[in-house]
Every structure is written in structure tokens, then in C-alpha cells.
Amino acid sequence: MSLPWLREPWLQVVSDIQSQRFGHAHCVPARADLGADSFCQALVDYLFCLKPQAKACGACKSCLLQQAGTHPDYYEVSSEDDKAIGVGKIRELTQRLQETANQHGAKIAWIKDAERMTVEAANALLKTLEEPTENTYILLTPVKTNALLPTLRSRMRLHKFNEPSWPETEAWLMQKLGRSLSGEEQLQCRHLAGSPLTALSLLEGKHVDETDHVAQLAQAMCRSGTWPQPSKQDWSSWLNASEAWLQELIRLRQRVAAERLRFPHLSDLAHDWLQRQQITVSELNAWLALCYNLRKLTSEQSGLNAPLLLQQQWLQWKHKP
């Protein structure tokens, strides 16, 4: 595993497989900023491999089928156009998992965007989780693990990745770039210490920093600035920024250490507003829960006017009861 912060969980997974202590159902948070997809792909390859060691051999028949994207015992389900994953897709998947493996080895299902499963779809998956066929593995990668039904979570192994510290992330960035970071780059990326791949994309000009969105929300909330007008194309980015800003306000209210703040350049603005409005942590958590609920609602139901629903939540920020 080339990403240093994933090496420990990877070694644990390999050890569990080799000692036959690896269960059939697993939930891995879809942290693209930490390389979760790479981790899951390596895991799928390892489980299929006929001669695995520290990783899949890459040369056996099963590995070659997997590399070609033609392994007949691999099944993938994901959301299409940000729509909900319906019960029909999951029933089709569970039916296939009941069949005999074509290669007489493992059968693996990877359900991406797992939080977008409808309640009916999640319930349809339950029986397979409870009574899996032999040598069958099911991998779920939700954006937020707690968005899954509790009955699903209780039947899976919940994996967790530890975020690297800023010194660890900085050292990795310097290695990838082949140079030291400038003072401006350090300031630009420090709040992304726990998201090293996002920081790398930002430095390479491939990623738009959410700090701009957060700063605009902060100005609108704390200084009666102009509120954004989210569209169907970018409302999700504004929802991410809303969550990030509320989480930052909670950290400030809880008086966490300065190095744990993601947007330190907005601290003075936020402190003044929190003091004037006398906003409590409970109120901030309630607003944050509404953001999480909006994310869940739009993942389960198609056709909702998500930008309008997000703006309605912002109205609560503007007009505190």
C-alpha cells in the first residue's frame, strides 16, 4: 500500500485474511481524500488473487481477469446521476450472489454510494448479510457510515482510517512534488492536513479549494453579506461547505486548540458573531444534523429541488429563533 496512512489498516486486513479471520461484510468510508477507493480496489484484487502475499500477485488467471475488468464473479452497484439505489438493483445483486462462482473462487460485490440505497433496498440486502453464501464478500462504501441503517451497520465490520497529522501530510506532499512547500502553500494546505490527496490536487491545480465557498458563507452569515445562489450543478459543493463551516463553528465554541481549526483565517469573524448571537453548540449541532439529513434525503429520493432545500436551511442561520 503506497499511501503511508493506509499501510497499517492494510496490514491488518491482510493478516485477517491470511488467518481466516476476515468476515464477509465490510463497510469502508468513501474518503476519496484519503485514497479509500485505492484501498478497496486493492482489497478486491487481493480477495480474488489465487497466489496473494503482501498484495495480489497480478499474474494469476483471476488477477488478469480483474485487471481486464472482465472477472465474472465481481459485481458493482453504484448511484447513477446522483439518484437513489433502488430495491431492484439490490435484489438483482443478491440473486447473483446466490449463484455458484464462475471461477470457483470468491464472489465479491462492491456497493458504492451505499448511503444512497433506499430503505427497501437496504432491507433487501439484509438477508444476504445475515446468511451469506460461502466465499462471498460484500463491500459497502458510503460517504457517511452513520447514514446507513443501524441494522446494516450492525452486520458489518466498520473500518476506519486515521487522518495523518500536518507534519506527516507535509512530508508526503514534499515527496510527491519533489520539493519543499512555500509559505503560501503551507498556509493554503494546512487546513487539509487530514485530506492529503485533496491537498495534492490543490497544489497541482486540479482541485477547487472549498475554502472559497466557506469564506462566502461566513461573510453572508456573520456580516450580512450576499448569500450564494446554488444550482443543480454545484449545490453539493455548497452543502459540503455548509457542513465544514458549521463544524468549524462547533470547534470554536468548544475552544479546541488553534492547530485543529480548518479555517483559522475566519476565526475572528466567527468569534465575534458567536458572541453577538449567543449561539450554543446544541444549536450548531442541530443545524449540522439538518445538513446531514438533507444529504440523506436527496440520496434516497429523486427529483427534489436540492438547491432550494439548502437555501431554506440557510434561512435558519439568518433568522435565529
From TrEMBL:
GO terms for cellular component: DNA polymerase III complex. It catalyses: DNA(n) + a 2'-deoxyribonucleoside 5'-triphosphate = DNA(n+1) + diphosphate. Its EC number is 2.7.7.7. SUPFAM superfamilies: P-loop containing nucleoside triphosphate hydrolases. It is an enzyme of class 2 (transferase). One of its GO terms (molecular function) is DNA-directed DNA polymerase activity. The keyword Transcription does not apply. One of its GO terms (biological process) is DNA-templated DNA replication. Keywords: DNA-directed DNA polymerase, Nucleotidyltransferase, Transferase. It comes from the Bacteria. This is DNA-directed DNA polymerase. It comes from Pseudidiomarina donghaiensis.
